[in-house]
Structures are given as C-alpha cells and as structure tokens.
C-alpha cells in the first residue's frame, strides 16, 4: 500500500529506509529521519535476503556506517538486490566517526551501474565506536555529537521530503591526502576485504552465561552457539555488535578490548537492535 502525506509545501507517497547498524548509530539516524518524514517504512538489512522490490515506494534510502572509508561489504551486496524504478528519489546517508571517505561514491557508482541515479547524498558525524581500536568516548562528547546531529538530520529530512538533488559527497581534503598515498591508500581500501576472517580474534571468557544475545544481535548472522558458547563463522563485518552488546562484557577481541569502555547509542535499546 502507498500512502499520501502532507509535507511542507507538497505531497509525497510513502518512503522506505533500509539500515545497517552494529552499535545503534545508523539505526538512530535512520529512525529519526523516518519519524520526521512520516509514513516511512524502516527496515533492517539482514542476511539471506533475495531481490527486494522497492517500486511501491516513492523514496528509497539506505543508511549505513563507514568502515575504512567504505560501506560495509554486506551493504554493497544488499544494494545490488534492490529493484528500483526510474522516477524514485534515491538517497544514501552514512554515519561516521572521523572519515566518510569513499562510502557515498561506492553507493553512487553501484546505483549508476544498475542504471539509476543517487539523488541525495548525506553524512552524519556520530560518536566513534571502533572498540578494536579505542574505547567509548566520554559521554559529554557523545551527547554533543547527538545534539549536533539533530540539525543535520533536519536538513536531510527537508531535502528528502522535497526530493531535492544534492551535490556529490566524496572524501574531504585530509581524506584525499591519505588516499593519494598509494601504499597507505591501498592498505586502507584492502583492509575491508579481510574483515570476514578477523573474527578469529574474537573470544569469550568465564563471564559468558550462554544468553545468546551475540547470536541475535549480529546483523550478518555470523555467530552460533556450540555447547552454550559463541562460535564465529568467518563472514564478519567487524561491526563489533557482539562485543558492544554483550551484557557481561564477556566477548573481546584479542587482548585489546578487555579494559575498554563499551558503546552503543544512548537512544537505542537491545530490543531495538533485535527487531527486524
């Protein structure tokens, strides 16, 4: 069913937003956009999806985090399954801690390969959450970024609601410097290719109570329980949801994360993450 809704000077039909999220940052942004747009279906990107028909919707958005200057491979593969129609407004929103890099360029190129145009390109800075590299930022700083994101999200809602085309968003100056260094650029781009087997570094300790939250919170269904404990299946996206949402801090990555503070978006609950 398609809905008609009034929005600032015009009418639009229903929208759909697909999101990928490990710690809740992208979910929080996607949910706020959906709520402010109105009549928007919010859908989690999950494993084992076949071709997805988006043609009943007038606007289609994809919201996802940036990993090593790029989209998660899981998201790239998902976009290839989307069935569009020419007249739809198509937009992408990336959440990032420091660098948006080539993430929107990858999305734009993929949609162009499918014969369509990415009309809207947006980015929202959020608290960094790569616990394999650093612990959670101070709450005061995270809250500052949450507040700053509100204005950015309102801008996204206004442009999507009016179906306004935007400028393309590529790497910023300092990101271009990194990518222009052949050795460093190639290392950065290739790092994502090795994510799948990096889960060999995940392990659990005696605090594991076999609750299974890690299994259910993993967006790519990369974990199962054996004898009540998690086993990783080497199709990891390094979202670290298993670490960040473990209620007993049982899961860690090598010897790097044991003393680091966990993070998830303050407005996102475990129930939110587990819903599909």
Task: Walk me through the structure.
The chain has 276 residues and is α/β, with parallel strands linked by helices. It has two domains: 4-175, Flavodoxin domain (Rossmann fold, 3-Layer(aba) Sandwich); 192-273, 2-Layer Sandwich (Alpha-Beta Plaits). The chain is built from ten helices and 13 strands. The chain has a five-stranded parallel beta sheet with strand order 4-3-6-8-9, sandwiched between helices. A two-stranded antiparallel ribbon has the order 1-2. A two-stranded parallel ribbon has the order 5-7. A hairpin with a 2-residue loop joins strand 1 (4-7) and strand 2.
Would you give the CATH topology of the largest domain? Rossmann fold
CATH class of the largest domain: Alpha Beta
Q: Can you name the CATH architecture of the largest domain?
A: 3-Layer(aba) Sandwich
Mean pLDDT: 92
Radius of gyration: 19 Å
Low-confidence stretches: 1-12
Number of domains: 2
Instruction: Please give the count of helices.
Output: 10
The portion of residues assigned to helices is 25-40%
Looking at this protein, list some descriptive labels.
276 residues; five-stranded parallel β-sheet; 10 helices; Alpha-Beta Plaits; alpha/beta; 2 domains; two-stranded antiparallel ribbon
Write the SSE topology.
Elements: E1 4-7, E2 10-13, E3 15-19, H1 25-37, E4 40-44, E5 52-53, E6 59-65, H2 73-79, E7 82-83, E8 89-96, H3 103-113, E9 120-125, H4 139-161, H5 173-180, H6 182-191, H7 195-198, E10 202-204, H8 213-217, E11 223-226, E12 229-232, H9 241-244, E13 251-253, H10 270-274
Parallel strand pairs: 3-4, 3-6, 5-7, 6-8, 8-9
Antiparallel strand pairs: 1-2, 10-13, 11-12
């Amino acid at each position: 069913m398609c809905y008609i809704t009034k929005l600032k000077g015009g009418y639009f039909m229903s929208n759909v937003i697909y999101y990928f999220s490990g710690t809740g940052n992208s979910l929080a942004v996607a949910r706020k956009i959906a709520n402010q747009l109105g009549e928007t279906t919010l859908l989690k990107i999950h494993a084992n999806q076949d071709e997805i028909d988006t043609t009943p919707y007038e606007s289609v958005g994809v919201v996802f985090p940036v990993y090593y200057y790029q989209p998660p491979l899981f998201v790239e593969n998902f976009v290839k399954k989307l069935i569009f129609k020419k007249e739809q407004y198509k937009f992408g929103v990336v959440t990032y801690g420091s660098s948006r890099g080539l993430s929107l360029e990858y999305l734009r190129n993929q949609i162009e390969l499918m014969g369509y145009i990415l009309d809207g390109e947006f980015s929202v800075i959020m608290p960094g959450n790569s616990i394999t590299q650093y612990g959670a930022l101070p709450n005061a700083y995270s809250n500052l970024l949450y507040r700053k994101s509100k204005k950015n999200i309102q801008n996204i809602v206004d442009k999507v609601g009016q179906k306004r085309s935007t400028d393309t968003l590529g790497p910023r100056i300092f990101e271009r410097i990194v990518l222009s260094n052949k050795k460093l650029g190639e290392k950065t781009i290739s790092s994502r290719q090795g994510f799948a087997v990096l889960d060999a570094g995940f392990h659990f300790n005696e605090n594991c109570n076999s609750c299974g939250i890690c299994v259910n919170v993993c967006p790519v269904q990369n974990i199962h329980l054996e004898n009540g404990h998690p086993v990783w299946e080497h199709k990891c996206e390094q979202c670290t949801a298993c670490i960040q949402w473990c209620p007993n801090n049982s899961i860690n990555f090598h010897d790097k994360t044991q003393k680091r503070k966990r993070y998830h978006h303050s407005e996102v609950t475990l129930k939110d993450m587990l819903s599909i």
